[in-house]
Structures are given as C-alpha cells and as structure tokens.
Amino acid sequence: MAVHRMDSCSLASCAATAPRAAYPFPPGETDPAIARYHSSDARAQTRWRVRCAEQGRGRVTMNRTDATMPLSMRGTADDMRRTEEAVLQARNENSRSAEPTTLGFGPAFPPRRAGEVSPLIEASNAYPEMERMVIGARRTAHLAFRIFDPATKTRSSEARSRGLFDWGDVLLDAAERGVNVRVLLADFEPVLAHDLHRVGWRNGRRLLDRATRLSPDCPGSIDLLIALHEGELGVAVRTALWLAVRARLAKLIRTDPEAVTSPGIKYSLLDGRPRFMPPARLWPATHHQKMLVVDGEHAVIGGIDVDERRYDDPDHSRPADQTWHDVSLRVDGDVARDADRHFIGIWNREVTRYGGGGDLVTGLHLPPGHDHQKVPQLIPGGRPDAVPVDPDLSNGDAQIRLVRTGSVIRRGSMAISPQPMVTEIEAAFVDAIRGARRLIYIENQFFRLRRIADEIGRRAIAEPDLEIIVVLPMAPDMVAFEGKTGPEMRFGEWLQVKALRHLLKLARGQVGLFSMVGQSRADPSLDGRARAFGSGIVYPHSKVLIVDDVRAIVGSANINGRSFRMDTEAALVWSGDQRIRAFRDELFAGHLGDAYRPDEPKPLKMWSDVALANLDLEPEERNGFVVPYKLGAASRFARFQRFIPEVYL
User: Fold this and answer.
1) Would residue 450 count as lying in a domain?
2) How many domains does the chain have?
3) ∠ CA 133-428-493 to the nearest 5 degrees?
4) pLDDT of residue 386
5) Of 19 and 379, which is predicted with more confidence?
6) Residue 338 domain-assigned?
C-alpha cells in the first residue's frame, strides 16, 4: 500500500535521532530491475534474479523464470558490480532510441477542450457522484487512492435503492454486471508508518474478502494491487538509521503483539525479534493520487480519499476531529481518457515491478511482505507513447489538462529520496502564479515551500494590485487530533512558518492568511491546537489554486516537497473557462456564509473583515467558518531539524 507523508514523518524522526556513525552493511541493489529475497533462516541467504529486456520504449522489467545467482548475505563486490553493470547496460541500450525523460510515465498530456467540468465540494457531493459513476459503468472502473475503505457507507439514493450499502457492495455489483474493477491502493512504510500500513492492508483484505463472493462465472472482475512506491533509501542511509529504526521496531512489537503478523514487519524479524543485520529497507515516498475513472470516459480527480473519516458536508457540524473540507473535479471526454491512460501506465508499471501475471508472489519481488497478495494481470494495450492532440483547440478555448508528479528509485547507497521524473504540477503552479494580476486564491493542507512563497511574493511586487488569500488548517491533523509532537511534526511546521513569513515579507499588505473553525462551542475534551477562538477547528484538506478566475488547479498535491517532487500525484489545470468564477463563488460562499458579496472588488478586505468580526461573535452567530490563521501558535510549535530532508515534509 502507499504512504501519505509516509508517516515519513516517522522516517524523518529517525533521521533526526539516528547515530551518525555508519556500520558495515551487506551489498544491496536498489534498481527496480533487480529483485532480492532475504531468507529468514540462520544462513540468511540472498538470492538475486535479474532479467533485463526491452519492452515498449526501453523499460527494464523483471521476470521470475531466469537465472539465479546465490550469494551469501555479504556477497562479493565483484558479483554485485557485475550485476549492476548488466542492468545499467541493458537500460542504456534499451533507451538509446527512446525519447528522454519520464522512464515509464509517458509523455506529458496536452490541453484538452473543457467539456463537462463539475466541482465537487465536500465528500457529501463527491461520494454520491462517484457512486453513481460506478453504478453506471459498462466496461471498466479504475480506482487509485491513498486510502480506500470498502466499508465506507454509500450516500446516494441510486446506490441505496439497489441495496448497495457500502463501497464494497458498489464494486461487487459492478463486477457482477460485467465491469472490470481495478483498485490501486497505496502501501505505507511497514515499520515507521505501521498504523497506516496496517490500515491499508486491512482495507485491502476487506475488499478481497468481499470479492470472494463473486461466482466463478461472473462476467466481470475485481483486481487489487497494494503498492509501495519504488523509491527506497540507499543501503548506507538505511544502515546509519538502523539503530533508531530497530528501536522503533522493538517497541512496536512489544506494545502491539499483532504487529508481527503484518506483511512488511515479518521481513525485519528473526525468531520473532528485530534482527541485527541487514538493516530494514525503508520507503519514504508514496502513491498519493486520488482518482476514479469509469469506462475511460468519466473521471473524478482531486484531494479526497474514500473512508468515513473524510466524509463531511458544507455545515461542518461534526466533532472537530471528524471535520473535513475537500474539493475534487468531475470531468468527461478527452481529459478523462488521459486520466485513464495515466492509471494504466501506473498500474502496468507496478504490476511489472511486482512480477505480475496472476501468480502468487513468493518473496522474490519488491517489496518484502507482499507475498500476501496475488499480483493481477497487466491491462492489455498499455498506454500509447503518443497522446493524440485536438488540432482544432486554440488558446482562446476553455481548456483542461491532466498534470502529474512522478519519481523513480534513485540509485546509490546514499540515496535519501527518489529521483523526480515528472514535475508537471509544480510547473503548472509556477506558470499560473507568474501570470497573476488580480487574485491568487489558495486552499491547501500545507504551505511548506519557500520557492512557491517566493514566486507569489515576487509577483505581488510586480503587480501592486494583486491580492493573495491563503486558507490552511490551524494545525496538521496528526498534531491537532493525535497529539503528535515529534521532530518531524515540528520541522514541518517550521518549514511552513518560514515560507509564510517570507511571503508576508515580500507581499506586505497584499496577503491574508486564514483558517476555519466550527460554528459551535468547542467540546471540553478538545485541547491544544484542535481548538481555536472558542470552537473546534474545521480541517481543510483541499488542494486548490485559483488565479484571476481564469485558471484553476485542483488535485492531490500539497504545497510541499513530497507532492511537488517525490510522491505520485495527479491534478487538473482548468483554464479560460467562465465557469471558474462560479467555482470560486461557491467556495467563497461556503467559507464566508451570508457575508459573501460576489461583486466585492477587493475580496481580501472582505475576507479580513469577516474573519476579524467572527472573533467577536459567539460561534453560533458567526458568518461562515473563516478566522485568522494563528501563525504565532505555529511558530511556537515549530523547530528546525538538521537531519530531516525537506522533501519528506
């Protein structure tokens, strides 16, 4: 399964506390073309299986029916060097005739004509629409989520009238009607993000248990792949972190005896205890995208996953730790076909890496522990290298385009993060900001990139009439609701405080920072940053940028290093469409309530007036949910951490 911030927060915490001295380590290859299996017997043999072959535009793939080279746990430098050279030579030879860049991600998608584009604000609108889409599917339903719980209740009348009471029922019904359902779930780092790892596998098993109800002659199918991102740390880095990671693992199995049964944990144990060597392998990146594509014709792309925690409605009247504000876009036509091509590309890439074809994984394929799932088949046809372009599309037309973030494993023993290969979302943000003249509106879970703050600030200097409105959570959810205060949490807040202060310095009076609170008094049990100004907070998780009402970006990417350079992300760039103004109006009306004036020429002043006025009102009397963002509270919590890579947060 995939990771969110990989609880990479936890990995970052180990990086901050690990001893600096490195220990001798066994040789290890990190290229995805080489699969390793560590046996758990006393001799701890390592078996290497390598097959380099051309596929399409020069990809290197693995196969299970090839020569095996047994090595001792320490191996020999010559053996490892020869193996590495064989893989790299094959990769180089295969790629000579290919166009450079994206290593399996395929070429960038072109702008498409914006047909039906429907903003879905809050899960109360997104979930029913996604249910209706799957119920109406005829051929395929492709789902890619960080979190997908099949026990999530259905909300649409269409689902309920068919006797479909949760998402497991919806997918089963689709398969029984002849639809091929494919679900790509993110796995999480097994040791350092164990809670997320366990939840992900629990959700996957729930879905597989439901799939066993399908009859043998069922015309459709349900395929599931729980995938860790390939970008693992280099062996020298893992060795340097191993004492801290080993201590974390020992505490985990001591406090949670069931942890030893988790797929990724058993790999790091010897006789039920954390082994001394080799160090556990660690995966800091994740598949963070959230998308549903039906029949290659209809898609929902945005920031929301599918589970009960993320369900909320525009009233945000639930307890603070159950509030959730999120935004997605439903699209049809060519851009939905591009989303399907993107899904197929990621699916086939991961199935190939896992040695797919329907056979049970035996431990020979990355990552360890995934012998608990059956690898599904490739999607026939794959995605074409050449993406068709609409020859009649002109710059004046309303357009929409799929953009992505993607990375691959970085070779070398000192690798601390994957190699960025596709940074289209970051480029789209920068391009939109550089064209701004009147208004930049941002909703995001994080704002941790100084370079984005710098771009906005420089644009504000160049355009004195430009106004910037930024909506953020009062605190990260794990800080506000789970009480986490580790170095990774504090460093993440430090990055955000640094970026926001830089923005305020450059933009001076042109920027406003806001957050959201509920319209009722805080529960007495709430403490710390889960409450503000007498109310429980409302948690914005959306990832939205709107510029001058002529361009909008909606997707899964936070404004941080992970989403712009490391994790797998998907977003839509919507431009030149009069409906973007209506989209902004809907967001503003939801946040400001009756105080929103659509004809207000200076929206920043309106936001500031409403936010400050709400401070003097009883929670039940407030207009909307907007209050000032408490930068001071974030500053007091924030701490710089020398040994945590910024890209993790």
Assistant:
1) yes
2) 1
3) 90
4) 62
5) 379
6) no
